[in-house]
Amino acid sequence: MFKLDEKFLEDLGLAALPDEQKQAFLQHIYSELEVRVGEKLTDGMSDELLDEFGNFVDQNEDGMKKWFEENLPDYADRDDYKQLLAANSEAPEKAVMSEYGAMKWLQLNRPDYPQVVAATLDELKSEISSNKDAILGGAKSE
Question: pLDDT grade, residue 140 (50/70/90)?
Fold first, then answer.
């Protein structure tokens, strides 16, 4: 797994980025990674599968419950669900269902998800590294 943090920026040669811009830049990288991974994962996917996954993204309780009933009826009794629920005790249960369901959906429908994330992150890191002078130059002029 990867962490988007100060070390990540250092590894990309962006340690000199002004402190007040680091968090915003990391958030931008995360958002861009999310979009790119989503595009790769959904490429060629049927509308039915897209709608199914959309239930988790949108936290559509009826859609999530339907998927769980059909694919993982015992989810609430599973140790990994209970651990996620306990670790997110302040979050609404619907949000935990959404996170857990999305993870299980990906494991079932896109078992290559970790590899897609890793490859996409490598591409993004390469782009950032090759543009680090422009990024740092732009950051200094702001």
Answer: low
